[in-house]
Design brief:
about 45% helix; TIM Barrel; homodimer; 10 strands; about 280 residues
Chain lengths: ~280, ~280
């Protein structure tokens, strides 16, 4: 089954478009876990256990784990292994290099570590992205329009009639025929999600920027979903992970995840009859 | 001392513009080392020992080490530690994320692991790059014009009067006043090195693509050097590391490095009286 079909399938089964972002910051986890060597892994496992019925995906932000060196690498591996296999895993690693090097990253993260997908930067073009697209059932979320302020520096620049992010979306779709290419489209740029959806009618979108960064869920659903009300994977990280700083952190994170899932679905009902 | 000044200083002391790229491929190292668990690290140490008198920098390509998971991480740390502190170390990791995440990558690679510099992707703009620029004596090589075929996909696209890579170079120089920003400019795009040099008269350039990728050293020196014949860091990886596949690999790599250093210097003499 293609990566795109796998996402839609899990979104239908779980009735959820929500992705939980495991941007786990050792300094922000509850104090009773900070002192333990295995604290970060235990935190992740409890978060996963409390949220897995409400999520279609988990995104692991590699920056937070590389900060711990080789121990961080082990935590990534063990965290990924503790995610139920039915749920999509996203390595938020933003890799991308010349083909020879990208092939190593692709093999390490998608094959050896077993992630279902990875975020990739587009600047180096086709041969830097294609090694990540070699498996039909594994996917790429290519950076198109990011949620940060710096998105304005280059992504919005006009190239002929298109803006750079639109050029990235238009060109990159020629790089694979395996239905395994999606895009990162920030929730803070809601009107422009519509432009990306027009250029890529069926591609899955990974949408960060809801929650702490202030993105609007109503607009993300209205402008981002495919015609049947699926196809956007809305990520929430900090607002879920640190909903409580006490020993009840997992319970509270579970409740916040369920609340977010239902909020997202309320907008799906508003715009899509099938929602 | 600023990162840019440190590079010029080591280039003057070593009389070398050559960087040895430790793109060490476990499957390509000599067979007597392939069978040993510590083979890759031993290979790197011997290469460093044989080439250190002819190099101004070492570049460690993270892709080849991440392929080995957490063991690879340990090899990176130990390899970096075995490079003499006078020689510039470059983490070729091509990171870049929203500011919060980039700050973690920057701390992990430049601070904890102790690299002098890192390659960073520009697509996400200012706040994704600035965390890597916080230390005056540590630097960034921002991807401008890469050596691969995919460079043609976006980097050459016209934005107003500039091409994207020129826009990246022009804008990014406003992001730091610490003289610690350099650029990656592929040796396979020699005429365009001149455009980047005009936009950034004093910035250090990391120039991959000489050797296996076929870049022309004469043109790199002619168009890339600063006015006094310094400022380009010319990387060679495969042509040095695998110059011999036998037990004499380190000796042969040393000789090839010395030959390359001298070849580079012959062009410096041709174009720069101080060379």
């Amino acid at each position: 089954m293609s990566f795109t079909k796998r996402i839609i399938s899990i979104q239908k089964k779980s009735n959820s478009l929500l992705c939980v972002g495991l941007d786990t910051d050792q300094k922000k986890i509850p104090s009773h876990l900070q002192s333990k060597k295995s604290g970060m892994l235990e935190f992740n496992k409890q978060i996963i256990n409390a949220t897995k019925d409400f999520a279609c995906a988990y995104k692991i932000n590699f920056a937070f784990y590389e900060a711990l060196g080789k121990e961080g690498w082990t935590i990534v591996e063990k965290t990924r292994a503790s995610i139920p296999s039915s749920i999509i895993t996203i390595a938020d690693a933003k890799r991308g290099d010349i083909g020879n090097s990208s092939a190593y990253y692709a093999n390490a993260i998608l094959n050896e570590m077993g992630f279902d997908s990875i975020t990739v930067a587009p600047y180096m073009g086709k041969d830097s992205v294609q090694p990540f697209l070699q498996w039909e059932n594994k996917g790429v979320f290519l950076l198109a329009l990011t949620s940060n302020e710096g998105a304005l520096d280059f992504q919005y620049k006009k190239i002929g009639k298109k803006r750079l992010f639109e050029e990235v979306v238009a060109q990159s779709q020629q790089w694979t025929d395996k239905q395994n290419l999606g895009f990162v489209v920030g929730a803070t740029k809601t009107k422009d999600i519509q432009s990306v959806r027009k250029l890529a009618p069926a591609a899955p979108f990974l949408v960060p920027g809801v929650g702490t960064q202030g993105g609007n869920i109503d607009d993300v659903i209205k402008y981002g979903c495919t015609n049947d009300g699926f196809g956007v994977v809305i990520n929430a990280s900090r607002s879920v992970l640190y909903a409580s700083s006490g020993k009840d952190f997992a319970d509270v994170a579970g409740k916040e995840t369920e609340r977010l899932k239902n909020e997202i679905n309320s907008y799906r009902k508003k715009y899509f009859t099938a929602g």
